[in-house]
Write a structure and sequence with these properties.
heterodimer; A: alpha/beta; six-stranded mixed sheet; six-stranded parallel sheet; 34% helix; B: alpha+beta; Alpha-Beta Plaits; 22% helix; 11% strand
């Protein structure tokens, strides 16, 4: 019986587990550094996207198979090494994602009032370890980056606490967001609307916020009009540009919140003495191929907070190669080297949506299975080494380092639902890591 | 509002969308694929990968294709056609799809 270790119980790791389990002779152990499964579905997908978060029901089905084990609260590099895995498993599949935000590389980005999107998203999703609470009393903010994460952040901040009561966010987040709701958000894109990554569905959803005007300057939109022509055959681009075109014609109201989309602008400096007071933007000229072809001066945007959402990078793992420029593990169709594989964002970089990672996992797993089949002697990894490894992980003496099983996660799940019920909500997340482990490891005591 | 597969899929059935769907809510008929609106979580992974551009968000569906909202939904709820489940041994397309003329090879 070949055993495969999967590092990371986010959607990519679980999709890979599902694909592996289609082979009746395989077993999988899915490790996660958190005591909880589902990765960015739990801690990245916007809390008001309740329906998308419901993909957890499909992911959870994988662990109903007795050949799939969840081993939560285990950190690669601290609790076990790549060498441990090599000895105990026939194949190792890395699905650790891309948790770190990239910096802007401009002056002023360390001033109070600057936020990395990853940290803000972790915070409002109640991540037990990472996250930066939103504490700025800002009337106007800028969100830099032309992807759906920028839209999520803009929407969550504009809705404030009142708009999130049907979500699972911790009480502290609702309170903090209500303290000083944002009135004006500027989403800033380096290039034009045709080259932005916003999905049409995310844009259309913004129209449902009745107390927010969506503002697009027709001149700014037209800056990239010639570039748009390249996409005449791409329906997604046409739909996206069409939505922005429609927004240029909307009448502006007074006394409402505003969400501005600013195109062809790159941040060059975050302004302020001891906190953010503005953002200096370079006005980009857009060439016929959509790229930036020079600049025509600068403009200062008066904002009191700046959120950068310009990309994510993965963590290097000791013992495996890493491409620091791209922030991922170099691989060919998911193959890293003999016995080691990658899937999801650590394989191809951050991008796509949840389902993209399923197709990605299917590709990696097909290579993994072909290699196992070619080796001809499946199941040669040491069962003894594997048993010793699991025993050692379960015997860690520190209370906060106890192992959390699938049953343990079910206990956490039940506790969060019970907590939500007391507040008239479907779920309220528990964020204290010690409490998560206390609940999740209770049965193992 | 779920995603909806339309007539551009008929007799092509590329199936790239099936591997993208995180909740496995896309099933095959005899001549086209159908999305189960009760299971679809609106994630949008299927839409951009369709080489036929056959998939739309229901609320962005062009007017002439609006009937496909019901065609996708009916496939999963009707008793006289639908997937090969329950007592049915083979898949049967929605009658509106089964009626469409076949392309001449």
């Amino acid at each position: 019986m070949p055993h495969v270790a999967i590092i990371g119980a986010g959607p990519s790791g679980v999709f890979a587990a599902a694909a592996l389990l289609k082979r009746p002779e395989l077993s999988v152990d899915v490790f996660d550094r958190l005591p909880t499964p589902f990765g960015l579905v739990r801690y990245g997908v916007a809390p008001d996207h309740v329906k998308i978060k419901s993909v957890t029901a499909a992911l959870a089905k994988v662990f109903a198979d007795p050949r799939a084990r969840f081993l939560g609260n285990v950190t690669l590099g601290t609790d076990l090494t790549v060498e441990d895995l090599r000895e105990a498993y026939d194949s190792v599949l890395v699905a650790t994602g891309a948790p770190h935000a990239r910096g802007l590389g401009v002056p002023g980005e360390d001033l109070p009032g600057n936020y990395a999107a990853a940290d803000l998203v972790s915070w409002y999703n109640g991540h037990p370890y990472t996250g930066t609470a939103y504490t700025t009393a800002a009337d106007a903010i800028a969100v830099i980056g032309a992807g759906n994460v920028s839209i999520d952040i803009a929407r969550v901040l504009l809705k404030a606490g009142a708009g999130l009561t049907d979500s699972d966010v911790p009480d502290s987040v609702l309170t903090a967001l209500d303290r000083h709701p944002v009135r004006e958000v500027h989403v800033v894109a380096r290039r034009g609307a045709a080259d932005a990554k916003f999905s049409p569905a995310e844009l259309l959803e913004l129209e449902k916020m009745a107390d927010v005007d969506l503002v697009v300057d027709p001149v700014e939109l037209d800056l990239s009009a010639t570039a748009t022509g390249r996409y005449d055959t791409d329906r997604t681009v046409a739909t996206r540009v069409g939505i922005f075109r429609r927004w240029t014609e909307r009448p502006r109201r007074t006394g409402v919140k505003e969400l501005h989309f600013r195109f062809a602008r790159s941040p060059v400096e975050v302004l302020g003495e001891d906190h953010v007071t503005g953002l200096r933007l370079q006005l980009n000229a857009i060439g016929p191929d959509g790229s930036i072809a020079g600049s025509s001066g600068t403009e200062d945007l008066p904002v009191q907070a700046v959120v950068r959402s310009i990309g994510y990078s993965g963590d290097p793992l000791s013992g495996l190669p890493f491409d620091h420029d791209r922030g991922l593990i170099p691989n060919i169709d998911g193959r890293i080297g003999p016995g080691f594989y990658a899937t999801g964002w650590i394989k191809r970089g951050p991008g796509g949506i949840i389902g993209s990672n399923k197709a990605c996992a299917i590709q990696t797993v097909s290579g993994l299975l072909a290699d196992l089949d070619a080796a001809g002697e499946p199941g040669t990894a040491s069962a003894l080494a594997r048993a010793q490894l699991i025993t050692r992980l379960g015997a860690r003496p520190e209370p906060h380092r106890r192992l959390v099983s699938w049953e343990g996660w079910n206990d956490i799940d039940a506790a969060e639902i019970a907590l939500g019920v007391t507040r008239g909500r479907a779920r309220t997340k528990i964020t204290d890591p010690r409490r998560l482990v206390d609940i999740g490891a209770r049965r193992a005591r | 509002m779920p995603y909806v597969i339309t007539d551009a899929c008929v007799d092509i059935m590329d199936r790239t969308c099936v591997d993208q769907c995180p909740v496995d809510c896309i099933q095959e008929g005899e001549r086209m694929l159908y999305i189960n609106p009760d299971d679809c979580i609106d994630c949008g992974a299927c839409e951009p990968v369709c080489p036929q551009n056959a998939i739309y968000l229901a609320e962005s569906l062009p007017a002439p294709l609006s009937g496909y909202v019901a065609i996708n939904a009916d496939f999963y709820t009707a008793t006289d056609f639908g997937p090969a489940t329950g007592g049915r041994l083979t898949v049967v397309d929605h009658p509106a799809v089964a009626r469409l003329p076949r392309a001449v090879a």
